[in-house]
UniProtKB/TrEMBL annotation:
GO terms for molecular function: ligase activity. It is a multi-pass membrane protein. This is O-antigen ligase family protein. It comes from Cytobacillus stercorigallinarum. Residues 2-134 form the O-antigen ligase-related domain. It is found in: Membrane.
Length: 208
């Protein structure tokens, strides 16, 4: 996986390890500290991305005698001033569409129609482009709530295990590539989020 061209798989693996680590911690304050620490480390890596990638590539080359394809390609694109790996143009096109249709979006498939069949390669950009602020904000809030439940939920049952499983298999990939229309794990994650939230609301109503 590491030697392949799939960076989304690497990110998914990192998210999996992070969630497993947080899940084992019982104290919510410590969970928060671990989460913030992870965000800080990621930020530092992004600020020194070229140095980090060169170091990793050199270590792998020394010990395994091979090169990591996606790292070589990414380093080349950084040297060319294209750290977004060719997606800057897609993001710019999406921002123009969002500015022109901020409330209701441009609709499903419109972006691909005018970008040679390419999609935005980011779930939030795609949501705001296709559906506008109203619907995209609701879905984004649901994703944030789902992430919070994955990290901080005190209830441990089959629903929560599935929620974490579907999150790991969908959201990291959708942040970097692919489209949610092709990823059934995303829709299963959304369905479970709504199901768990409804379950929590019913429990509260019974207590009242």
């Amino acid at each position: 996986m590491i030697l392949s061209n799939n960076r989304g798989a690497i990110v998914s693996l990192f998210i999996l390890l992070l969630l497993v680590s947080i899940k084992r911690v019982k104290n919510n304050s410590l969970k928060f500290i671990i989460f913030i620490s992870a965000i800080t480390v990621i930020s530092l890596i992004l600020m020194n991305i070229k140095v980090v990638l060169l170091t990793i590539n050199n270590i792998v080359s020394s010990f395994l005698g091979t090169r990591i394809n996606w790292l070589d390609r990414f380093l080349f694109q950084i040297d060319q001033g294209d750290i977004l790996t060719g997606r800057a143009g897609l993001y710019n096109n999406a921002s123009v569409l969002i500015e022109g249709n901020p409330i209701f979006g441009v609709g499903i498939g419109y972006f691909e129609l005018f970008n040679n069949g390419q999609y935005p390669h980011n779930i939030f950009i795609q949501l705001f482009t296709e559906f506008g602020v109203l619907i995209a904000s609701v879905v984004s809030l649901l994703l944030i709530v789902g992430l919070y439940m994955c990290i901080a939920s005190k209830v441990e049952d089959n629903y929560m295990e599935l929620l974490r499983f579907f999150f790991i298999l969908s959201i990291p990939r959708l942040m970097l590539s692919t489209t949610y229309w092709k990823l059934h794990f995303f829709w299963l994650f959304i369905f479970l989020c709504i199901l768990i939230l409804r379950k929590k609301l019913r429990v509260k109503e019974r207590r009242v």
